[in-house]
């Protein structure tokens, strides 16, 4: 995103580091550069306000849960790799890993339909080539 106006610090760079700024994870000199940018750039200031509000809402809703350290590291590393891909113009692919738990009792295969019999046309109400229900007598 860019507002189109020239700034000492580009809008894209500011937005790339917005969460570091919100989380107080930046050096003071870098924070000062972002504050100057927010004073000059209303679109970035709006984005900052929106992200700040979202962060406050999440904190109120989920503030009592601690994030596991390894999860936090993985998420931050993935964010960095996505940002690096966006800056280089490469397509960004986000993979979602899922785990499916299957219980043995619930993993029974569904019954398979019985193949149609060639001579089914001789029986009343049965069309030749129509599937026959499982359990029907076979000839």
Question: What does this protein look like?
Answer:
By secondary structure, the chain is an all-alpha fold. The chain contains 5 helices and no strands. Helix 3 (28-40) packs across helix 4 (42-62). The chain is globular and about 40 Å long. The chain starts with 10 loop residues before the first helix and ends in a 51-residue tail after the last helix.
Order of helices and strands: HHHHH
3D shape: globular
What's the tally of helices? Answer: 5
Query: What structural class is derived from the secondary structure elements?
Result: mainly alpha
Uncertain residue ranges: none
Percentage of residues in helical conformation: 40-55%
Mean pLDDT level: 73
Whole-angstrom Rg: 30 Å
List the helices and strands and how they pair.
Blueprint: H1 11-16, H2 18-22, H3 28-40, H4 42-62, H5 69-88
Summarize the model shown:
Helix content is 47%, strand content 0%. With 139 residues, it is mainly alpha-helical.
Keywords:
single chain, 139 residues, 0% strand, mainly alpha, globular
């Amino acid at each position: 995103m860019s507002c189109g106006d020239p700034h000492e610090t580009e809008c894209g760079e500011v937005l790339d580091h917005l969460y570091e700024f919100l989380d107080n994870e930046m050096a003071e000199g870098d924070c000062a550069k972002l504050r100057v940018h927010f004073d000059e750039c209303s679109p970035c200031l709006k984005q900052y306000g929106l992200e700040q509000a979202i962060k406050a809402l999440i904190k109120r809703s989920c503030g009592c849960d601690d994030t596991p350290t390894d999860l936090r590291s993985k998420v931050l590393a993935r964010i960095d790799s996505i940002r690096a891909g966006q800056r280089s113009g490469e397509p960004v692919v986000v993979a979602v890993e899922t785990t499916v738990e299957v219980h043995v009792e619930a993993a029974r295969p569904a019954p398979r339909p019985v193949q149609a019999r060639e001579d089914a046309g001789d029986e009343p109400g049965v069309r030749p080539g129509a599937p026959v229900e499982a359990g029907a007598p076979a000839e």
